[in-house]
TrEMBL record:
Any GO molecular function: proline-tRNA ligase activity
Chain's role: Catalyzes the attachment of proline to tRNA(Pro) in a two-step reaction: proline is first activated by ATP to form Pro-AMP and then transferred to the acceptor end of tRNA(Pro). As ProRS can inadvertently accommodate and process non-cognate amino acids such as alanine and cysteine, to avoid such errors it has two additional distinct editing activities against alanine. One activity is designated as 'pretransfer' editing and involves the tRNA(Pro)-independent hydrolysis of activated Ala-AMP.
Organism of derivation: Metabacillus rhizolycopersici
UniProt EC number: 6.1.1.15
Main location: cytoplasm
Database matches in HAMAP family: Pro_tRNA_synth_type1 (MF_01569)
Entry comment, domain topic: Consists of three domains: the N-terminal catalytic domain, the editing domain and the C-terminal anticodon-binding domain.
Keywords in alphabetical order: Aminoacyl-tRNA synthetase, ATP-binding, Cytoplasm, Ligase, Nucleotide-binding, Protein biosynthesis
Name this protein carries in UniProt: Proline--tRNA ligase
Top class in the EC scheme: ligase
Protein family (similarity comment): Belongs to the class-II aminoacyl-tRNA synthetase family. ProS type 1 subfamily.
InterPro entries named among the record's database cross-references: aa-tRNA-synt_IIb, aa-tRNA-synth_II, aa-tRNA-synth_II/BPL/LPL, Anticodon-bd, Anticodon-bd_dom_sf, Pro-tRNA-ligase_IIa, Pro-tRNA-synth_IIa_bac-type, Pro-tRNA-Synthase_IIa_type1
Length: 567
């Protein structure tokens, strides 16, 4: 491709609204332009990279036994109503009406559509298992789009779905997809971790996220410093063993604590440790009130609470709801003498608290000398807190550390969540009707593009891995008015293409400094510069990743390129 004939509008300055490196560099290097908040055009260079990522995805999906199809982005509301998600998905689902006032959704995901397709065609176990995938634009009305294409309202996604007659068949497909994902992200040059995750609005169990390590990531992962254990912080189990003190039990005593609401304030005011404080947090779990107790130095994990109750919605109780349930204001809530309409559950660490402190369900008062088994009724103990750095790893090997990351892929075992709701059944080998068992596997293709840039850049621009660079070689004649340089650049351009290389020829009438700055911004793996020594048959080769440069005779050029780029 000749640079004068394509569209690469580079920028010298960093756009003021671009917070992260991938967003900045995609704008500066002429890869994207914003059309609306969270909505972007992918310009020619970005489009090439997207197609390369898609090709890697296709190759690995096909190897895993999946077939590609393409489903509509415009989805009937009736399908979402069948699954129940029309009412539960939330405002992120973009809903529209046609001229006949019929309701549709712009596809945020495609579980409903694919389930309806398969249920209408597959009736026998003999046609299972079946794995299907697509690469398509998705739409989600994000409340706060940010970080460029990392969190947009329109994005490109690969979503795959598998259908099975048995759980063993699903396990086999899940493992194949897991391996395919590892291959995809490795081929894209990413440093990533596969972590235990929550299924969120998709549903299902036994899920893993694929997280690209990055300080700007919105996900926090907990990992062992000595083993392979890794999990999203929301899902990491806590296996701590808590030692209970043998102190003599003190009597329960109500103490005035004027304007002391937080754990920090209470521990300081009463001169006790945070570990001796009982943090009481009221939640609305679907249609019931649940009071969750954790130690003062811990935080309630609402995802674990949701999973404990297999709930659809878990929300922190409002001030009005707290008043209704406990006749109290937040900050003075506690588990003693609560209404029978409020269920009390506690994290395992609470069982070890002796002579603790908790709210008295009366404004400006707390209880001291609290001993849970004596003073209140806990319906059950469970793992209900977030894991912390320094905790023992759940697999018993090493201690936990935290890292930030960007989620680029997610694999789920959906089970029969959608097939039962939408009556997707088959006849088994005994002629009995059974719901299909499903799996779901997603990759954020456009998000992967940004994640690659987050990990592969320097102060001058993008540094593309060879496998997904828009071009392999940036061919730059210093002066297009010089006949020797112009002729040699055209000759090499034709030879490189004939040899199978992808080449971007900068034939623009620009100063060489501008060309070099743009080349660094764009970040192609190898730059070949044709300058004053063109008549001598010598060019300069520079490696973008290392900064190494060589003066190379034309007779040695092909060998060096094979060494740097492969055949």
């Amino acid at each position: 491709m000749k640079q004068s004939m394509t569209f690469i509008p580079t920028l010298r300055e960093v756009p003021s609204d671009a917070e992260v490196k991938s967003h900045q560099l995609m704008l500066r290097a002429g890869f994207t332009r914003q059309n609306a908040s969270g909505v972007y055009s992918y310009l020619p260079l970005a489009n090439i990279v997207l197609k390369k990522i898609e090709q890697i995805v296709r190759e690995e999906m096909n190897t895993a036994g999946a077939s590609e199809l393409l489903m509509p982005a415009l989805q009937q509301a009736e399908l979402w109503q069948e699954s129940g998600r029309w009412y539960s998905y939330g405002p992120e689902l973009m809903r529209v009406k046609d001229r006949h006032n019929r309701e549709f959704a712009l596809g945020a995901t495609h579980e409903e559509v694919i389930t309806s397709l398969v249920r209408d065609e597959i009736k026998s176990y003999k046609r299972l298992p079946l794995s299907l995938y697509q690469i398509q634009t998705k739409f989600r009305d994000e409340k706060r789009p940010r970080f460029g294409v990392l969190r947009g309202r329109e994005f490109i996604m690969k979503d795959a779905y598998s259908f099975h007659a048995t759980k063993e068949s699903l396990d086999e497909a899940y493992n194949k997809m897991f391996t395919a994902y590892q291959n995809i992200f490795s081929r894209c040059g990413l440093d990533f971790r596969a972590v235990i995750a929550d299924s969120g609005a998709i549903g299902g169990t036994d899920t893993h996220e694929f997280i690209v390590l990055s300080e700007i990531g919105e996900d926090t992962i907990a990992y062992s410093d000595t083993s392979q254990f890794a999990a999203n912080i929301e899902m990491a189990p806590v296996n701590a063993v808590y030692e209970k003190k043998t102190d003599e039990l003190k009597p329960l005593e109500k103490t005035e604590t004027p304007d002391q609401r937080t754990i920090e304030e209470i521990s300081s005011f009463l001169n006790v440790t945070k570990e001796a404080c009982i943090k009481s947090v009221l939640f609305k779990v679907d249609d019931r009130f649940v009071l969750v107790l954790v130690r003062g130095d811990h935080e309630v994990n609402d995802i674990k609470l949701k999973n404990l109750y297999d709930a659809t919605n878990v929300d922190l109780a409002t001030a009005d709801e707290t008043k209704e349930a406990l006749n109290c204001v937040p900050g003075f809530v506690g588990p003693i003498n609560v209404s029978e309409n409020v269920e009390v559950v506690a994290d395992h660490a609470i069982a070890s608290v002796v002579n603790g402190v908790c709210g008295a369900n009366e404004e400006q008062f707390h209880f001291q000398g609290v001993n849970i088994d004596r003073d209140t009724k806990v319906s059950q103990y469970a793992d209900l807190r977030f894991i912390q750095e320094g905790d023992v790893s759940p697999d018993g090997e090493g201690t936990i550390k935290f890292a930030k990351g960007i989620e680029v892929g997610h694999v789920f075992k959906l089970g029969t969540k959608y097939s039962e709701a939408m009556n997707a059944t088959f006849l088994d080998e005994n002629g009995r009707t059974q719901p299909m068992i499903m799996g779901c596997y997603g990759i954020g293709v456009s998000r992967t593009l940004a994640a690659i840039i987050e990990q592969h850049h320097d102060e001058n621009g993008i540094v593309w891995p060879n496998s997904i660079a828009p071009f392999q070689i940036h061919l730059i004649p210093v002066n297009m008015k010089n006949d020797s340089q112009k002729d040699l650049s055209e000759k090499l351009y034709a030879e490189f293409i004939e040899q199978g290389y992808e080449v971007l020829l900068d034939d623009r009438p620009e100063r060489v400094g501008v060309k070099f700055a743009d080349a660094d911004l764009i970040g192609l793996p190898v730059r070949v510069t044709i300058g004053k020594k063109a008549e001598e048959g010598i060019v300069e080769v520079k490696v973008r990743k290392t900064g190494e440069s060589f003066e190379v005779a034309l007779s040695e050029l092909q060998g060096l390129l094979k060494q740097l780029l492969g055949n």
